[in-house]
Design goal:
This protein is α+β, with helices and mostly antiparallel strands. The chain has 19 helices and 27 strands. The longest helix has 27 residues, at about 50-75. About 55% of the residues are buried.
Length: about 700
């Protein structure tokens, strides 16, 4: 028996590395690349060609966060479970379910040659770093990687930014489907961790036209809310190629270019939007479950057995078989209550890879719109500004084609084509607000029909209800519109003050929530009554100056947890009880300073924070540390202020919570931006190479 167990253990330990497919490396090429690190460690990457730049992007990012990049590559290979165990295996299952690899294998060679060269250059940069640092490689046969691996990352992650994980998780858990992909539901297991958590989503974006700015400048503020660590954390960079690609912004691990920011001529930023982009169909199966009925005929249910590597402990990896199914509508989930096919936006295509590259290279509004018309990015708001003074908001989505007479917010019959039509509506049908009379546009994850102020909003009647456009509002959007609308002329200082605002609007869901909290029956509980008395003194601001701010921040978090995912309102008395219990347990009082509770923690840095959930100065989510303090992990992440002056010259400033080398504790740039971030200060972005001179910390060829 002991010998048998040893043999099994050896088999488990060796199975995954020996059976994992090794990719063919990109064609050998000598890349002409130079990396200049500025005094904040931000890489400025120079290359003769755009592919040379992509090579340097990968190498520089690997220097700062090779661990996360390996996780992303493992995800594209269906091997994340060999690193992260059962949690990683969920992602591997999702990769197979959405056929990300199959999509890339089918379409990769039809991509434009310059796009493939860019992907190959990025993959080659990762391979070069791995070859020079073999001790950092954490999974056998993960390298070399190639352009197909990088493209697969885009195909895999895109649908999880608009809630596909929520629908999959609800089906797997036999839980109620989320309303309009709202986010994870109670008792619904997360199917994949690669996208942003629906309970924490959020971002702010502002653009101001010359007619509304105090000095005639065009301005843009990028203020995405993402996790501060991991596979969807922002990484800042500036790129320059002799072929004319110049861009400053930020990217996610695994991207060969910035995903938002600016070039000389224009810029854009993104916020998460939540249109209804997922239709669910209940199939009718035959007796043995091998066929499904569709338009009176029995079709074979496509199925494929995949092996998910699951790390158990140490080097031991267990192969777990799983069957994935597919019907005409899309991937199929089999549950106790039946089999469900999922039709979702932007499925089975990799056009987003080219689209982002063309956006980077656009030189004017027309070129930028032509790139958007590729319709590869299946969801996400785009707010745009440029040197010519244009501003625009595109409620971008690959809206599903739908037929009148059916309720697509509910589970649909899957045995007929009457309620199903493949394809995406034309780009011309995508809602947009271009150069509004108000001279400004904002979005903070609200409905697109509230973005430009009174008299300049889009008319909901102009857009088909079949598109499933969201109608939600957030406190951040309400507050932003209040503050922007109150300024006849918005100065640079005004815009900075608005972005870092910690106020809570006295209208919308927050007004009702706090009214309900203060009106709740304390039922003789002196702690609840004391909390209500403290709340009545609150000034509706989470600036850390008032005695009720810590309590209010906790209650904002509770409110966000039901309002944002479109759930019923939480019990106000229970929410007060939970908040007071925490404050008494950790601080022995109900009125500790907000900064004593909310902390920025990284390495040896431990700093107080202001703001909170659902305010413009966002601290969206946190973990309770062993000492009871709340270590923020999600919220204001990469922040960038961009302006074009009257002559069209661009300049920008930025900030991140930690630094360029988030996962390198020994780096001087592990936390060198933290004190600035806490103080609402910004650092310069040296966009033009001539401005970078004198601010270079290190210059080298990778």
């Amino acid at each position: 028996m002991t010998v048998l167990l040893v043999l099994i253990a050896i088999g488990l330990a060796t199975w995954e590395p020996l059976t994992a497919a090794t990719a063919e490396a990109p064609p050998a090429h000598r890349y002409d690349t130079v990396i200049a690190r500025d005094r904040f460690g931000v890489p400025h990457i120079f290359g003769t060609t755009d592919a040379d730049v992509a090579y340097g992007i990968a190498y520089a990012h690997a220097e700062d966060d090779f661990s996360t990049l390996q996780d992303v590559v493992a995800m594209t290979r269906g091997r994340l479970g060999a690193i992260d165990g059962a949690d990683g295996a969920k992602t591997d299952y999702a990769l197979h379910l959405v056929q990300a690899r199959e999509t890339v294998d089918r379409d990769y060679m039809t991509q434009p040659a310059d796009v493939r060269a860019l992907l190959d250059g990025y993959a080659s940069g990762l391979n070069a770093y791995a070859a020079r640092h073999p001790g950092e490689v954490k999974l056998a046969r993960l390298f070399p990687v190639n352009g197909q691996d990088i493209a697969t990352g885009f195909v895999m992650r895109s649908p999880f930014f608009f809630g596909l994980d929520a629908t999959l998780g609800a089906l797997v858990g036999d839980a109620p489907l989320p309303k309009e992909s709202a986010g994870p539901q109670p008792d619904a297991p997360d199917i994949t961790p690669v996208g942003p958590d629906g309970r924490e989503n959020g971002s702010n974006a502002f653009v101001v036209a010359p007619r509304r700015s105090a000095d005639g400048f065009t301005r843009m503020v990028s203020n995405s809310h993402q996790p501060w660590r991991g596979a969807v954390a922002w990484y800042e960079l500036v790129v320059h190629s002799k072929a004319g690609w110049n861009f400053a912004g930020a990217m996610f691990p695994g991207a060969p270019y910035p995903l938002l920011g600016h070039n000389e001529h224009l810029g854009w930023t993104n916020t998460v939007n939540r249109p209804d982009l997922i239709d669910t169909y209940k199939l009718v199966l035959d007796g043995d479950g091998s066929h499904y009925r569709f338009d009176g005929q029995w079709r074979p249910l496509e199925k494929k057995t995949v092996w998910l590597p699951v790390r158990l402990w140490g080097p031991f990896v267990l192969p777990v078989p799983k069957t994935v199914y597919r019907a005409v509508q899309g991937p199929v989930i089999e549950t106790r209550s039946g089999a469900y096919a999922i039709h979702y936006a932007g499925a089975d295509q990799l056009r987003m890879v080219e689209q982002y590259y063309r956006l980077n290279r656009a030189r004017n509004f027309d070129q930028w719109q032509r790139a958007m018309a590729i319709q590869g990015v299946p969801a996400t708001n785009f707010l745009y500004a440029d040197a010519a003074g244009n501003i625009a908001y595109f409620y971008n989505a690959s809206f599903l084609k739908r037929k009148p007479g059916f309720d697509y917010s509910k589970v649909l019959p899957g045995d007929t084509s009457a309620d199903f039509e493949p394809g995406t509506v034309p780009w011309a049908m995508v809602p947009r607000n271009v150069n509004p009379r108000s001279g400004f546009l904002v979005n903070a994850n609200s409905t697109p029909f509230l973005s430009a102020g009174a008299g300049s909003e889009m008319n909901p009647a102009d857009w088909s209800p079949l598109l499933g456009i969201e109608t939600d509002t957030t406190n951040r959007d309400n507050r932003a519109l209040e503050l922007m609308g109150a300024n006849p002329k918005i100065s640079a200082e005004d815009l900075e003050r608005i972005k870092f605002d910690t106020g809570v609007s006295r209208r919308g869901w927050t007004a009702k929530w706090f009214a309900d909290l203060m009106a709740a029956d304390a039922k003789g509980d002196p702690q609840v009554a004391a909390a209500q008395a403290l709340l009545r003194q609150w000034d509706w601001n989470l600036d850390g100056k008032g005695p009720a701010d810590a309590l209010a921040a906790l209650l904002m978090k509770t409110g966000q947890s039901w309002h944002y995912p479109r759930k019923p309102e939480a019990d106000p008395r229970a929410a007060l009880g939970e908040a007071t219990a925490y404050l008494r347990r950790v601080f022995g009082r109900l009125d500790p300073p907000l900064g004593a509770m909310l902390r920025l923690r990284q390495g040896k840095v431990d700093l107080p924070l202001d703001g909170g959930p659902e305010v413009l100065r966002a601290a969206a989510n946190w973990d309770e540390a062993p000492d009871g303090r709340l270590a923020v992990k999600h919220g204001d992440s990469f922040v960038m202020f961009v302006q074009w002056d009257k002559s069209g010259r661009v300049s920008s400033r930025s900030i991140q919570p930690f630094g360029a080398a988030t996962t390198r504790p020994d780096s001087p740039h592990h936390t060198d931006q933290s004190r600035l971030f806490v103080a609402h200060e910004l650092k310069p972005v040296w966009f033009y190479p001539r401005d970078l001179k004198g601010n270079i910390e290190r210059l080298y060829r990778p």
